[in-house]
Amino acid sequence: MQEASEDQYLSESGEKEDDLLPSSEEDNKDESLSGFEEDSEEESVKEKMLDVPFEELQRARSDGSCSFRPEHGKKAVSKRANKNRPVEISSKKPVSRFREVIQAPKKIVRDPRFENLCGSYEESKFKASYKFLYDEQLPAERKRLQILLQKEKSDAAIAELKKHISWIDKQLRDEQLRRKHSQKLTELKRMEKEAVKKGKRPFYIKKSEIRKQELAEKFKELKGSGKLEAFLAKRHRRNAAKDHRFMPYRRSQTS
Questions:
Q1: Disulfide check for 175: which of 35, 134, 135, 241 has CB 3.0–4.6 Å away?
Q2: Residue 20, pLDDT score
Q3: Shared-domain flag, residues 231 and 161
Q4: How large is the average pLDDT for residues 77-100?
Q5: How many domains does the chain divide into?
Q6: In what ranges is there compositional bias, type Basic and acidic residues (predicted)?
Q7: pLDDT by residue (tens digit) across 64-86?
Q8: Is 73 part of a structural domain of the chain?
Q9: Could you say which of 63, 79, 101 is where a domain stops?
């Protein structure tokens, strides 16, 4: 009986060992496959790291703040068989509500103020090129508006025309003052150049001095035309209104 039990035990243990063998072989196969996949991933990462600059790698190794992440596969871009044919889009993806049906060339908006192609800004050339606006177009526009103002009967239209005429008058006055100012500067520069040629030490006049000279010339013109008193009275009223804002309010007397 003991011999039979021993034979039975040995046979059962042998069967168990036989059952264990294939599972261990499968585990070994899985481990070898996973190791192969890891090796292939490492090789792909190494190949991609060849394009990374040495400075980036050194920085990542030194402090660990930078980590290299390999780029995943890029999205597939839909192509055309011919440039004159439309793009073929998959029917499995839903079409968006807003899409570009016709591929038109993109409009490029250029601002001449910030474009190197348009050259640098020179005020003298700009004023000379667009001088006709103040010499011809704005005066002609003012005459046309004056004729329309005489024929117009609507109050709203009359107010709008008067507003436009006053704007044109302001533009013409400002342009006249700018031209006088530029003429004054060119005259002063010419005098200084002549003085330097004669041996005088170069002297650059201040803006405050230029304003004083312009104000003196303006007073002479107003005095000659007889409008100096009206100008001074208007200026006095304007300064008084400015000073009135800083005056303290009168306290109300409570009974």
A1: 134
A2: 41
A3: yes
A4: 77
A5: 2
A6: 43-62
A7: 555 555 555 556 666 777 888 88
A8: no
A9: 63
Residue 35: domain span:
2-63
What count of Cα atoms within 13 Å lies in the side-chain half-sphere of residue 128?
5
Indicate whether 91 pLDDT > 90: no
> How far is Cα 48 from Cα 70, in angstroms, rounded to an integer?
7
3-state secondary structure labels for all residues of the chain: CHHHHHHHHHHHHHHHHHHHHHHHHHHHHHHHHHHHHHHHHHHHHHHHHCCCCHHHHHHHHHHCCCCCCCCCCCCCCCCCCCCCCCCCCCCCCCCCCCCCCCCCCCCCCCCCCCCHHHCCCCHHHHHHHCCHHHHHHHHHHHHHHHHHHHHCCCHHHHHHHHHHHHHHHHHHHHHHHHHHHHHHHHHHHHHHHHHHHCCCCCCCCCHHHHHHHHHHHHHHHHHHHCCHHHHHHHHHHHHHHHHHCCCCCCCCCCC
**For the chain, what is the largest distance between any 2 Cα atoms, rounded to a whole number of angstroms?**
150
Residue with tokens 């009168």: 250
Whether residues 140 and 228 share a domain: the answer is yes
Could you tell me if 68 and 49 are in contact, meaning their C-beta atoms sit under 8 angstroms apart?
yes
Query: Does a structural domain hold residue 15?
Result: yes
Instruction: Decide which of 24, 45, 63 is a domain's last residue.
Output: 63
Residue 18 lies in a domain: yes
* CB proximity list for 121: less than 8 A, separation 6 or greater: 113
